[in-house]
Amino acid sequence: MTARDAEKASRATVRPTAVRLGLMALPLAFFGVFFAFPVASIVSRGLKSDGQWQFGRIGEVLADPETGHVLWFTTWQAAASTALTLALALPGAYVFARFDFPGKQLLRAVVTVPFVLPTVVVGSAFLALLGHGGLLDEWWGIRLDTTVWAILVAHVFFNYAVVVRTVGGLWAQLDPRQEEAARVLGAGRLAAWRRVTLPALAPAVAAAALMVFLFTFTSFGVVQILGGPRYATLEVEIYQQTAQLLDLPTAAVLTLLQFLAVALLLAVHARTVRRREATLRLVSAARTARRPQGAGQWALLAAVLGTVVLLVLVPLAVLVLRSFDGPDGYGLAFYRALASAGDNGGTFVVAPLEAIGNSAAYGLAATALAVVVGGLAAAALTRREGRLVRGFDALLMLPLGTSAVTVGFGFLISLDEPPLDLRTSWILVPLAQALVGVPFVVRTMLPVLRAVDHRLREAAAVLGASPLRAWREVDLPLVGRALAVAAGFAFAVSLGEFGATVFIARPDSPTLPVAVARLLGRPGELNYGQAMALSTILMLVCAAALLVLERLRTDRTGEF
Amino acid sequence: MNTTLRRALGAALVGVLGLPALAACGGSGSSKNSESSGGKGDKTVTLVSHDSFAASDSVLKEFTQQTGYTVKVLKSGDAGQAVNQAILSKSHPQGDVFFGVDNTLLSRALDNGLFTSYQAKGLDRVPGDLQLDAAQHRVTPIDTGDICVNYDRAYFADHKLAPPQTLDDLVKPEYKNLLVTENSATSSPGLAFQLATIAKFGDDGWQDYWKKLKDNNVEVVDGWEQAYNSRFSGSAAGKKAKGDKPLVVSYASSPPAEVLDMKPQPDPKDAPTGVATGTCFRQTEFAGLLKGAKNPDGGKALIDFLLSKTFQEDMPLQMFVKPANQDAKLPEVFTKYGAQIDSSATVDPQKIAKNRDQWVKAWSSLVLK
């Protein structure tokens, strides 16, 4: 090695760190100002009185038996939901990974729709199904609303796709020949599966389980609507204490408690994800799927499809049916009402169709923000070494585990002075939505970026390309599709985001979910029907966005 | 974080993210009312309210014609949430006037110093018993509404049963299993109904009453939407959802709302639902000039306008409340299908503020556990 080569090599090791820090700067600033700062403001408002920290409050709230109850319920319902979701969705993951059947792409898009639907909509669909006078009630006299079962079932509905996509995505790429080889060598079917496939899948299952646990641990709308007044998660309690009772000290302590729990979960998640990325022999998904053979496989396929129909399609169908069930029998009455509501409605409901435009505009802005911030973050995270990187990774996920009311009220009290008086600015909504979108962008981009062979970059560098040029010429073409998928996910998530948006959406430009919630809050059949019709439209928009994504799907994208 | 640092941070970030550019290109989508109150000096007046606020465009236009001010409306959540948001942001209020603080929340707002005094024009046309801050005029009564038990006329006719009229009726055996109400902790009608029982049976008696109500199998759900639109058998939406409770805690204006919602517009003899007039709690909604308002003159003009006949007569069909101004006429659908309520219960706002949390807690552990 000549002296010049050595110098080049040392520069090459210094430079990536500098570049990485540079890439992190914008995401860090974004999270600092639009997440950490608002949340810290509202928490410190709660824990300070007359400029003095009141740490005594923490002990008081923690010692309250009510806090213990809430924490216990939050934890066990999340654990139960996760177990139930895994039990029902793992066979689905297998079927989607290994079998070819007509309509598979469409179905994979459809099972993902619930994941991006706002909980108000899902809540009303489930009430119509499980609640009083619902289908179950009518057929068998079974009512599940205000029971834990309704909450659990709805959680499965929401998170089915998380497991199917995370686990199924990897399963589809596991080379089946490895298992076949084990069998040729004399292992029984079960033993071969247990020794070969299971170890390869375990990290993905663990990662999916943790995501589901995180989502259900912080569940808000489902618990509030379906659980009735008797059940409360931490998230529900934080909402109550902040928005209804204005008991900020209690809310602050509960927020910190939730933070702690979520941080713990994310730490575990980061570990399993790292293990998951252990080298596996992956093949193209297209090569592993085939038509089911034999009665057993057909039965499995039928069972999975049956589960999907019952769990996912029926609730969605109830919603659609109700949107057509007009005052004079089935028809388009509610849709027509939607189209004309702006003419006579005064300031209450901006023509609901306008809400679709608002949602799309906000969604696009949020997507742009999320892709820029999340893309830079993912680029910075591509190299996995370093504690700093891991901490940064976890930080990006934190908004998923933070109460929307904390963020919404945090915005309200912290972004209130020029030049950051954004409270009445439309940009606030996309900002809040982008906070939720960024983790999805990062999760989608990261596996692809990490899969880019670093030797390609090195080769480019040796040939004299600057890091930027190497990135543009090597990484970008390879990740283009992943970027599109990430953008699509961010867009779909923005469309459905309800929690924070409801606190900050401008009344003259409500988003679709906010418009649905407002309609549901008004008396009369017409408003209810319009809410259902608008939900159906929202669902179709989400489904269309997801279907486009299915077409774009690359082999290595699919952590969600 | 100190202000200078915050500003510096903010300025840097706004620059980095190119927010101004984004704002410029995205603004076209929502340009209709997006003129900020600072922009054109004092020609915009901002009204902060809850989600139920509604007014006809023509009425708001009339205000602009009369005064030259354009109204910008900011709505945030239900009444409780809106008041709490206003309190949280009182050092930099989001607007000039707040509308929608009711008597159950009034003390919280006043104690937090949300409003400055202003004696509205036309206040002399408002009955004295509504003027709960008559000494200082920090708030102006704008409308009233009653929360009462509603009943499904068809159910009681079919069962040859007289509908209940009073709170005492509700605990009678013939009305067992019939009533659905809302959670006091999460729903403002739910709380109002609890307050009605506190007003009637006193600090010592209301818990006994609720024990009897519980024995009579009262059902509690979290929100009004669920109670009225899916559990109540008398509303159109509830009928469709096969609601099985012929009694629900709702508004006195719900029956006219049901009639208005029928299509094609019919002219029935009675509304499909009725009101048990002995179960009512009176809510009065107030407006006030926010302390630190950027446009206090516009705010004062707006409060005057809220109390004017034009706005007051538009209000009933927009928000289903009754005008506070005695000169304002109720629309026919209200006089024809609305109930005449002679005696509504009320509780002193200060007493509510003092006891609210404790009452709700006691109620929760008594009724929900």
UniProtKB/TrEMBL annotation, chain B:
Residues 1-23 form the signal peptide. The keyword Signal applies. PROSITE patterns: PROKAR_LIPOPROTEIN. Keywords: Signal. GO terms for cellular component: outer membrane-bounded periplasmic space. One of its GO terms (biological process) is thiamine transport. Pfam families: SBP_bac_6. GO terms for molecular function: thiamine binding; thiamine pyrophosphate binding. InterPro entries: ThiB-like. It comes from the Bacteria. The keyword Chloroplast does not apply. This is Thiamine ABC transporter substrate-binding protein. It comes from Streptomyces morookaense (Streptoverticillium morookaense). The lineage of its organism: Bacteria, Bacillati, Actinomycetota, Actinomycetes, Kitasatosporales.
